[in-house]
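REQUEST FORM: STRUCTURE PREDICTION
Request ID: SP-0412
Submitted by: Lab K.M.
Chain count: 1
Length (residues): 172
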Amino acid sequence: MSSPPRELRQPARGWFGRPLLSATIAVCWLLLQGSLELPHLLAAALIGLVVPRLVAPFLGPRARIRSARAATRLVLVVLYDIVIANLTVAWIVLNPRSQPRPAWVPVPLDLTHPTGMVLLATIITTTPGTVSCVIDEAKREILVHALDCDDAAAMAAEIKRRYEAPLMEIFG
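STATUS: Completed
RESULT:
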């Protein structure tokens, strides 16, 4: 049995062990406060430093992003898909003549990076109209429930092309 890649074995260390998480928490705090006043900035910095350190034992090893460009493209694709899926689901729900065709779609996985697989499941679940139900590592597939799907193979291919391929580029 081979050992995990070096970056997966290294725990996050120090107060800035997870700078992206710290920055995200700080920005979310400021957005929730709706203010950039000094007390809110100080609270955001403190919370952004303390929370990642408190939850570090639960986060597991840190993952390295190999391609920031691919990550940026993926974020834009996912945001676009969320908007389009919201409109599609709204149409299905509000249109009295719609007849959605729910389906279970098995999506074979080429992705092996644990963080990549979790992100794939999260992206699928975040996109309205689809829910990832099971990541079956033994079968190397993720099972997706779709609200409206007339071609399961085409949907699986689309998930692999739009989400899994970029995640493989990002995490290697």
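NOTES: The chain has six helices and three strands.
Reviewed by: T.R.
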